[in-house]
């Protein structure tokens, strides 16, 4: 039953960005509130622009502003790139909507790539408006488009005075940036930055500037368009280096194959002699899952979180662990982390150069090289260092964001969540060693969301060449001239200073002082407590699925069954196990090498990203946010005392720890804060526990008495 109320007369207009055009709209659209099983909702206007789909709530007031507000994409906005799939409901049956529509649905369901689910009822909307809005949304978000038709270009040509916003992030688009990085890592003795690709005369896939071993000649680089050339990624403190190389195609005739082999042998001999370390080669296409496997696993995995309603949540909960296991996504994360540890062992312990080989060296090479640097170089665990790393290895390194994210809807065959895989792996490290990172999991979550915001050029090109060749264009302000694209690293475009405070980790461990042996051991214990994804509670002895699984139901802890499955296969070799166990037996140096724990149950679900829109999965007053809130409160008290003690020099007080009043307002914060609203409480049904068992044995339904469990108290 839908409680119909007359929509208010107030005219609500969409907030349009520079270059944004309203394409179609429909009034009297009813948006369902997702969190409960009833058909409660709100009336409003549904609009589609060349940037987003937006629902304008008639009853919305400024008092109901979310705590963590994005200035570009509102709570009810979906960028066209963020739309995953659109379904129409016809006579209670769901049907995928693509292309031309003969019949228009009475209900529209939009699944988003950031895992939000929107449901709109169109029964009370005029037929003409329904046709326009549904066909408009389907056309603009699902059909293939040209690169220059991306909103990125409309915005860049219309936005006034785009800020540069580098914010200490090294962009790696100049020769100087590469030379500085060589100097920072002390790799400039054996490696050199080259200008051979200026004008893209070697290859359009390679960046303008990159680094190779000093002994490699310009002639060798030019010979096969950069294929077969070891390109430098990073140098370890002991001189060992991480290199990557794009391989020659495997299917070739014998004579070509022999020529390529001879060329490679020559290169390997050159870089295996002193002053270079021994070389270990690792072909990632054979030692890691294929991109297709990664895409298949992620497609299965995300389905677990695209939940329409309360009933679906509880239905999937019964088989949650087996469903999670069957996606294979967490196993892929574990294998990638294990590979990164193997590479770290070669560099750190064996003093061996590691050459990562892949067909284009722009997918799994980016994942492994970035992870190794995050694990081995504490600079990459600072915010500016991590951003510079993404620029170096991914943006300038030539990862095909446009194809891998399928921003243009050209080909699903090319689609694969490679960058998301990296962020998932980094999140494992962040939640295991929170004190070692200057940024928070919230930072990683908003970074993953920014993949689908086409006002930044960072994630919307396949290569530096593609960006450079599309820079020229007509600008509304200057008549003609190059586009000035924004970079995602200017966080002030999306968030005000108060919201940006959530991206910085106030618990980040500063560089340890010389007298640190005792302090390390206490910190070691403390960080392990902090790394727990939830505050532990005593399980109830009462029957009922929810009560028995209280700690595990919140879906960011893996069960022992998964641990058994993972540990039984793919056992690491002895030297690896020795290196791994030896490191984990010592106290953690937060500014030294970090190795993730990779046994089955250690690999967890990134709860904040995947569960933030599901109220049933929230713990009011629980999770790491409960710990962080208390520590932040204490830090703010210390800071205010510091100011009182030294009022004349108050300017010198660090501004990194921003006051976050929301943390103090309520002891009942959601564990998925800051994305879950304080007032967004789900109504917990009284669950007949027999219903769960009946899913397995329907015959006993009549014989069994229902035992009702009141869940309202368990969520605390």
UniProtKB/TrEMBL annotation:
Keywords: Cytoplasm, Sarcoplasmic reticulum. Residues 519-528 have a biased composition (Basic residues). GO terms for cellular component: membrane; sarcomere; sarcoplasmic reticulum. It comes from the Eukaryota. The keyword Cytoplasm applies. Residues 172-610 form the Myotubularin phosphatase domain. GO terms for biological process: phosphatidylinositol dephosphorylation. The keyword rRNA-binding does not apply. It is found in: Cytoplasm, Myofibril, Sarcomere; Sarcoplasmic reticulum. Coiled coil: none annotated. Residues 506-528 are annotated as: Disordered. Its main location: cytoplasm. InterPro entries: MTMR12-like_C, MTMR12_PTP, Myotubularin, Myotubularin-like_Pase_dom, PH-like_dom_sf, Prot-tyrosine_phosphatase-like. It holds the Pfam family Myotub-related. SUPFAM superfamilies: (Phosphotyrosine protein) phosphatases II, PH domain-like. Belongs to the protein-tyrosine phosphatase family. Non-receptor class myotubularin subfamily. This is Myotubularin-related protein 12.
